[in-house]
Amino acid sequence: MKISRLLNEATMMLKQAQIEDPAFEAGLILSWAVNKPRAFIYAHPEMELDPPEIRRFMELVERRSRGEPFQYITGECEFMSLRFKVNPGVLVPRSDTELLAEAALFSLGCDQPFIDPSLYRVSNQGIRRVLDIGTGSGCLAVSVARYAPYVTVDALDISEEALETARQNAELNSVSGAIRFIRADFLNDSGFTGCKYDLIISNPPYIPRDDKTGLMPAVEKYEPSQALFADDGGLIFYKRLARLSPEILAENGVILVECGFNQSAGVRDIFQGHGMETMSLKDLSGTERVIAARMRV
Ligand SMILES: C[S@@+](CC[C@H](N)C(=O)[O-])C[C@H]1O[C@@H](n2cnc3c(N)ncnc32)[C@H](O)[C@@H]1O
User: Which one of 16, 60, 161, 256 has the minimum C-beta count within 10 Å?
Assistant: First the structure.
């Protein structure tokens, strides 16, 4: 069967399954299945594929049509222009979360042209200690270790499977030496590192466990629920972090957290209630997505 016909059939299947941009995804999947760049595929519509290649492609299209994220099918994704391995034990890093990564780099003194220049910066003396709570694939910890000079990062997660993936991603991006991996339950354990941090970053689970309105069914079906849902209207991690900050945040330290589209006021209130000043950063769609907090001086 010719490439053009395969692409048409796959596009129809993906469209019926209500996958956004079905023609683009059909090209991506075919490129993955035959291990050739997308440009090659579009440049050779008349090329015939052999039956094993066709079978492999159609199997992948079926998986995608059932809603499985493309990144779980291929086992990898890109974040902050770096390659990351992913699997169903970790959340697929979202492009929205790049705002948090860029904010962290700005706070650590790196140039970030799209970040509000009034965002709080940490002290620029010596090695800066960073804590990433709920590291998952390690996308934030690895990006910070890769792009910011003079940092050591503690990457914490409750899931051993996630930590193993994060370790592999640190190796893949040549930053294993800068990251310590810690298995701990942030909500219940205490004294998990015994350090104070200049920068604490977190994209915690924040979807309210009792209100899943607007959540795409495929997300709930395929991604780890431990990475998605949180108690207390989705705010429990922010409350715990605010309570723990006198213990784990260094003097002049900064906290940066991602939150859900309608949570920014609630998250700011939590940190302000613990004597902190806060500000928010908007994502590309204008939603307040990252909250910054530091002790009032
Ligand atoms: C929303 S995911 C974020 C993953 C990654 N940092 C990212 O931005 O793509 C939240 C992570 O928090 C972890 N997590 C959930 N409950 C936790 C807890 N009580 N203590 C520590 N980590 C927890 C999950 O395993 C998951 O990896």
Answer: 16
